[in-house]
Amino acid sequence: MTTADGKPLKVSLRRALRRQRIWAFLLVAPLLLFILVTFIVPVFNMALRGIENPQVHDIMPQTTSALKAWDGEGLPAEPVYAALVADLQAGYKSKEIGKVATRLNYEKVGMRSVIMSSARHAKRMKDGPYKEAMIHVNRAWGDPATWRLIKRESAPYTFSYLLAALDAHYDDNGDIAMLPQDRRIYVPLFIRTLLMSATVTLFCILLGYPVAYLLANLPLKISNLLMIMVLLPFWTSLLVRTTTWIVLLQSQGVLNDLMVWLHVIDDQGRIQMIFNKTGTLVAMTHILLPFMILPLYSVMKTVPPSYLRAARSLGANPLVAFWRVYVPQTVSGIGAGSLLVFILSIGYYITPALVGGQSGQMISNMIAYHMQESLNWGLAGALGLLLLVIVLVLYSVYNKFIGIDKIKMG
Amino acid sequence: MKHLFKTSAMTFAILGTALGGVGVAHAEQSLTIVSWGGAYSKSQKLAYHDPWTEKTGDKIYMDPKSAQGLAGLRSQVEAGKVTWDLVDMLEGNAITACDEGLVEEIDYDEILAPAPDGTPPSQDFIEGSLSGCFIPQIVYSTVLAYNTTAFPADKQPSKVADLFDLKNFPGKRSLEKIPDGNLEWALVADGVAPDKVYDVLSTQAGVDRAFKKLDTIKDDIVWWDAGAQPPQLLADKEVVMASAYNGRIFNAQVNEDQPFKIMWDGQMFELDGWVVPQGKLTPELKKYLRFATDTQRLADQAKYISYGPARKSSVPLIGKGVNGVDMKEHLPTAKANFFNPIKKDAIWWADHGDEMRQRFNAWLSQ
User: Fold this and answer.
1) Quick one: pLDDT at residue A358?
2) Could you confirm whether the keyword Heme appears in this record (chain A) (predicted)?
3) How far is CA B70 from CA A267, A291, A374, B291, in A?
4) CB contacts, 8 Å: B211 with chain A
5) Is the pLDDT at A121 greater than 80, yes or no?
6) Least CB-CB distance to A112: which of B351, B359, B363?
7) End-to-end CA separation in angstroms for chain B
8) CA count, 13 A, side-chain hemisphere, A140
9) How far apart are CA B332 and CA B157, in angstroms?
């Protein structure tokens, strides 16, 4: 079969389809490019930061290759020390050696001084033998543990940051061990973040479900007004809403003043409701509520009211009808809203930073701390990577048990 | 109409070139100086930025980003695009920046001005403060201060140990939410001599001892994280005692008439100064540095804020402050105030800072 211009129909059809596909691709290409540049690349970059380990490998290349042959027992031989001195001299001259010092200090306290003072001494060293001389400069060079550390960290990639993000480390023998109890912070913080996100999600369901129900079932005039009341805060800046909660809840704030005035509490017994976990929970629930209400509302809008009436007419009392007929039809909305709220809150940063005090901090505040204050970008990357993995795992668990195709935005 | 369009287009073109030209000339003679903001930046502006602009016509832009100074330097150098000409930072951060090659090494005697009597800078600045890249300007102190109305007149706190004495000096205390300073004070209160503090802290037992001492007042501490908080907390009587930067307490005492007093015992002093980002040591900047760190300029700065000048030759030149107060009495380096001081060991903190902060954060959340 051929078309009017004499080409076989199949070929012609394939060509037309191909053209369509190219058009479709070109239409989404800007978005794909945008996502690639602003999302995929940064995420990949962050993950890489969490495992890459270029300092020792790049700045001390001679020591790195000399240590390859060392078996990790006793002290390495003279050539390794000669390589160390050469690297220290070169690194001191290029002013790069400080990066090695900072890197190794993360693994073992005091290594910063060891490297920097040795580099200053090495600058003046002319001839060998270097082994005795270096051990004389700093006793650390006479300790096999120092050498095991350098050998381990001379690999271009490391698990050290990921271990640190899980409150573990390599001990002096190079075995993985948990940190002592009084220094563990990240695992408890991850658990707290998950628990708080779950609590916020639960609060959002409890508070959002009735509102969404009203929105979907009241006469249009009233429900429109109600909708504006839901949307108005949604359109207000997050910072404004967060600081408003400070005004309301602080110990000299509106709510406490009111309770003192009503003699519910006395002036000495003002309740601490903000700058702690309570503050974070209240403010986050308020801010994330629309993300629960809107998907719920759009699902509820599609539930035909006749189903409920049918249930009633078949003899179900209102509660049973609601629970067994209405709620199951809105599960997909609950699922969509919960997933949105939970994933948003797991990475929440600014609200806990403002109203969380010490007990209301979440893992993203720690990531920000390592980005801006301690400048340990590797650890920040590792913490971010772990957070991403946790979200993906939770997502796939959700997908397995509830099914992502069940999610409906309306 | 067409004519009008042409003329205006041309006018704009000419105007644009002219403005562009001004912009370029301007850019050559402007400096972007990063500092701490607030009262401190103001003292720098009055003492050396304004006089320099008056003298040379150079514009100076002040960027209050010192709190992220090291992070900013790192990312700017890494990206190969440094926009800062001079960065104010603490000695500890300056040493780290120097070790990592983020900032220029300084030949002090060549670049900086000698004292009026000819003493070279290397002799004139506080001993041990010229570490290679760092150009110190001031000595400031973190001190313990209290509200005098919180205690009976015959029973006022006077020493570090009183911070930990809840029985004789009851009430909440406010401390900065970092381990720096708090660990040192805990040990001093526990009987360690100020000059032995870092030896003790270098051992695991010493760190445990400091945290154990802090445990005794943990429930009575309100933590602060911005310098403006402790004077406010003291004024509101939310706390009776607080650690604070001495300049902030001075400001509250003199400008706001607050009944605060500093117990100079165990003051933790450290240096603050300038570093020059990699590639920014231009002849223009050298001239500015020579001017802004000379004896008179550093003495002038003490007129506006109660921090001690980093040059010994500046001390005799310090006179009365803007409000008629004799500034010499209020400087941390004044003889009467330099009592049992702890010099914050920048090298020790560079080595142990990460570990201490981790332990401190874990301790806080327990």
Assistant:
1) 77
2) no
3) 45, 38, 9, 25
4) 182
5) yes
6) B351
7) 77
8) 19
9) 19
- For chain A, the first-to-last Cα distance in angstroms comes to 45
Q: Say if residues B267 and B85 touch (Cβ distance below 8 Å).
A: no
Predicted structure pTM score? 0.79
Contact across the interface for A99 and B354, Cβ inside 8 Å: no
What ranges do the domains of chain A cover? 55-154, 186-406
Residues 83-142 of A with CB under 8 A from B: 94-99, 101-102, 105-106, 109-113, 116
- Residue window 321-360, chain A: list those with CB within 8 Å of chain B: 358-359
* Cβ neighbours, 10 Å, residue A143: 15
Task: Check if A231 contacts B (Cβ < 8 Å).
Answer: no
Radius of gyration of chain A (CA): 31
d(CA A241, CA B286): 48
Give yes or no for residue B12 having a pLDDT over 80.
no
State whether B71 and A184 contact (CB < 8 Å): no
Q: What is the rounded CA–CA span in Å between residue A326 and residue A210?
A: 13
Task: Say what the pLDDT of residue B13 is.
Answer: 44
Q: Does B365 touch chain A (CB under 8 A)?
A: yes
Please judge whether A113 and B347 are an interchain contact, meaning their C-beta atoms are less than 8 angstroms apart: yes
Quick check: B227 and B245 in contact, CB under 8 A? yes
CATH architecture of A186-406: Orthogonal Bundle (1.10)
pLDDT digits (tens, 9 = 90+) for A25-69: 999 999 999 999 999 999 999 999 999 999 999 999 999 999 998
Identity of the residue in B101, B223, B353 whose CB atom sits nearest the CB atom of A98: B101
Mapping DSSP to helix (H, G, I), strand (E, B) and coil, where does residue A271 land? coil
Strand residue runs (E) in B130-226: 135-147, 173-176, 221-224
Q: What is the mean pLDDT of residues A323-350?
A: 91
* B364 to A358: CB separation less than 8 angstroms, yes or no: yes
Asked whether residue B27 carries a pLDDT value surpassing 60, the answer given is no
Full set of structural domains in chain B with CATH: 9-138+272-330 (3.40.190.10), 140-270+340-364 (3.40.190.10)
B204/A contact by beta carbon, under 8 A: no
Q: Please state the ipTM of this predicted complex.
A: 0.70
C-beta separation of B77 from B50 below 8 A: no
Q: Between B74, B101, B347, which is nearest A96 by CB?
A: B101
Cβ–Cβ contact B71 with A under 8 A: yes
SS3 B50: helix
